[in-house]
Automatic annotation (TrEMBL), chain A:
Metallo-beta-lactamase domain residues: 29-218
Organism: Shewanella jiangmenensis
InterPro entries named in the record: Metallo-B-lactamas (IPR001279), ODP_dom (IPR045761), RibonucZ/Hydroxyglut_hydro (IPR036866)
UniProt-listed SUPFAM superfamilies: Metallo-hydrolase/oxidoreductase
PANTHER family in the cross-refs: HYDROLASE, METALLO-BETA-LACTAMASE SUPERFAMILY, METALLO-BETA-LACTAMASE DOMAIN-CONTAINING PROTEIN
Protein name: MBL fold metallo-hydrolase
Source organism phylogeny: Bacteria, Pseudomonadati, Pseudomonadota, Gammaproteobacteria, Alteromonadales
CDD domains: flavodiiron_proteins_MBL-fold
Classification via SMART domains: Lactamase_B
Gene3D superfamilies in UniProt: Ribonuclease Z/Hydroxyacylglutathione hydrolase-like
Pfam families: ODP
TrEMBL record, chain B:
UniProt superkingdom: Bacteria
Protein name (Swiss-Prot/TrEMBL): Chemotaxis protein
Highest classification ranks of the organism: Bacteria, Pseudomonadati, Pseudomonadota, Gammaproteobacteria, Alteromonadales
Length: 244, 203
């Protein structure tokens, strides 16, 4: 599995994990992100069962497991958190931050040890080591209870399925040319995102944040001006096409 | 003793199937209970001529009660076994992924930090397997006991037929019916119990 340092500040760093070459080709490729600060870490959208072994193996190259203290699930989908039953046996003292709406559903993946920290609809904050991160509401994008993670110090937004693209697993991890990338994400956003109203609300709130890296759970990472380009493009996109 | 990790149909499926068979047995027990009540009512109507038969209805009732209790207990054991087998299968899956991660991370700086989780999971797996085997063995013993006890149903049915000969011809059919019912339902229960035993033996 590919591992890459995204950003490093004096207090913490963001790591990327993904593009596992041994992954079954029939399952969608996913990106996992880790914030590490001192003896604490947050693993975001840890992935599905099939990804657990390469993910665990990649993590222990970066940190001892007792430093992996928090998990985050943006929503309840299997590619996000179906590995929970395995993490539950790996990190019995960890805490899982996830939408309150999905607690009863996510627990179906198996959770006897990890504690579920339900995120209220308005979001919340968490200290990971020396850095305070924000859980930003992204409801209906695409799940009805959905959050993104914003780090105001490193200026990174983990944007879940927003910004996702469908392309081969060997693709680069960064967007190179925004215009040519549109074709790889347009159908995904028009079909998976259900609400223009929710989209407009999210775009308006994100415009107020200083974002240098926008990190989706599938596809490629947007950097610098590409973030603004994405917000403009997404703002004008008509979503929820399945009912047309 | 067979172990949970043997091939073929997963044990949690077998245990669930056994529980289903025993549920049917409970329905059969209700039928025997009803038969015993009917026989008792008929004996009372006939009066002193059916006193011998009336005493038998008590045994029919007892047999139904015992069968019901045993079926309930085995049913509970089957549910426990199914639950344990499911948990064991999940733990085995976790071990499979842990071992895969350990192989992949052979040279990782913090590979040692996985060992605690792997050790705990292996311990948990061994405990679950042992608990499962205990429940399974208890269930198999109880199934055989139940089968043994059901043999008395045939004896009861035979005595019912003898008692039926002693009453007035007009009432004989009622008691012969009771005897036939006891025979039929006991055979049905034995069939279910045999199926349950076969389900385990087929592993």
């Amino acid at each position: 599995m590919k591992t890459q340092l995204l950003v490093e500040t004096p207090t913490h760093k963001w790591m990327y994990f993904g593009r596992d070459p041994e992954k079954n080709q029939k399952i969608i490729d996913t990106n996992q992100y880790l914030i590490q600060s001192g003896n604490q870490s947050l693993l975001m959208d840890p992935g599905g069962i099939e990804l657990f072994a390469p993910m665990l193996a990649s993590l222990v190259r970066q940190l001892p497991l007792e430093h992996l203290t928090y998990l985050f699930a943006s929503h309840q989908d299997p590619d996000i958190i179906s590995s929970l039953g395995l993490w539950d046996q790996t990190l019995p003292k960890a805490k899982l931050y996830a939408p309150w709406l999905w607690e009863g559903f996510i627990r179906h993946f198996g959770m006897n040890n990890i504690s579920y920290e339900p995120l209220p609809d308005k979001g919340g904050k968490l200290m990971v080591g020396e850095v305070e991160i924000q859980f930003v509401p992204a409801h209906y994008l695409h799940a009805s209870g959905n959050f993104h993670v914003y780090d105001p110090v490193a200026k990174v937004l983990m944007s879940g399925d927003v910004g996702a693209a469908l392309e081969p697993a060997e693709a680069d991890i960064f967007v190179d040319d925004f215009s040519s990338h549109i074709g790889k994400m347009e159908y995904f956003h028009r079909r998976w995102m259900p609400s223009n109203r929710a989209k407009a609300n999210w775009v308006s709130r994100m415009r107020d944040l200083d974002i240098q890296y926008m990190c989706p759970q599938h596809g490629r990472i947007f950097r610098g001006p590409q973030v603004r380009q994405f917000l403009d493009w997404f703002d004008s996109l008509d979503v929820g096409i399945a009912i047309e | 003793m067979k172990t949970i990790s043997q091939g073929g149909r997963p044990y949690y499926v077998t245990a669930a199937m056994v529980a289903a068979e025993l549920n049917h047995t409970l329905a059969c027990c209700k039928e025997i209970n009803l038969t015993a009540s009917n026989a008792q009512a008929a004996s009372s109507r006939i009066g002193s001529a059916a006193l011998g038969f009336k005493a038998l209805t008590h045994y029919i009732d007892e047999l139904a009660g015992y069968t019901k209790r045993a079926a309930n207990e085995i049913n509970q054991l089957a549910k426990d076994a199914s639950k344990l087998a499911t948990e064991t299968a999940r733990t085995a899956t976790a071990l499979h992924y842990f071992h895969a991660a350990r192989d992949k991370a052979a040279n990782a700086a913090y590979a040692y930090s996985m060992e605690g989780a792997i050790y705990n999971t292996e311990e948990n797996y061994a405990r679950l397997e042992s608990d499962f085997n205990q429940v399974l063995s208890k269930m198999q013993v109880q199934l055989l006991d139940l089968k043994q006890n059901l043999r008395s149903a045939n004896a009861l049915a035979s005595i019912c037929r003898v008692e039926a000969c002693r009453v007035d011809g007009r009432f004989q059919a009622i008691f012969v019916d009771v005897a036939n019912k006891v025979d039929t339902v006991a055979a049905q229960i034995r069939g279910r119990v045999d199926t349950a035993i076969r389900l385990f033996d087929s592993h």
